[in-house]
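Hey, I was hoping to borrow your eyes for a little while. I've been puzzling over a protein and I'd love to understand its fold better. The fold is given in discrete form, as structure tokens running alongside the sequence. I'd be grateful if you could look everything over and explain what you see. No rush at all, and the record is pasted right below.
>
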Amino acid sequence: MDISVVIPSYNTAGTIGKTLDALSRQVTTCSLEVIVVDCSETDDVAAICEKSGIVRLLREQERFNPGQGRNIGARAATGTLLVFVDADVHLAPDALQAALSYYQAGHFMFGGALELDETAATTASYLEHWFFNHEAQAGRPECPRANLSSALMIVERELFLSAGGFADIPRMQDTELSERMARRGVSLTFTPTVLAHQVQDSSMGQVLRKVRVNGRNLYFIRHGAASWLRNVAFFLLLPAMALAKVTRIVARHLRYQDARKRLVTIRLLPLLYWAGIEWMLGFYAALIFRGGISRSR
């Protein structure tokens, strides 16, 4: 088997049908399998998977963190290349063929272009996508990456399993894995040839909570063992760090998006900088109250 597409699922009946439809329309010469690892509270997802006719469904009785669902799917997979997608991500028709070609060119762990599905997008949708996917625009050229999103991540199965897979944490398991792989000497890259669109349907409150959790978890993933002196430096410099982070997000969208989406970026400026404050507060909470990686999603 060339490719195994792995999709973790928890109560995703509202989105996974279109994700599977996109997979059924793939134009490719490679052999592939689609594995859905589901821990939903009802049988709705199972019914959708059965109707699709392309899914190998793995049911789990207990709810898992998404990374653990991906690990279960990866262990069961038979493909040389793992393509992780979320249940709200729709691959372009040539995405899997492009992924296999890029892998065969010597790239063993990479991400693709992940654009927003704008068909029913809200302001919160744009804010979430702009904040968390500012390194994955279709207009960005191939380049090295420091982190890859698990919403669209491609990795050689043998390499993934040898590294132990995703950590069992609710959010930012992709950042943790990316940085662990980089420390092992694995080159992480981005290619715009693998294109997908993602549905974002969280409320504004949910988005801002995710941003705060991102700030908190980033501290423990990267700096949990920092000395007291370094923590003092973080405390003093954090406003400047948050400002630089959001300014970098804005700059990437202005550089790599088309003219219409640049206007969206400009309109989002107040919200993006507000999100930067929320991210800073999450980081401050980690510094002051400790407590480890958040168990909240």
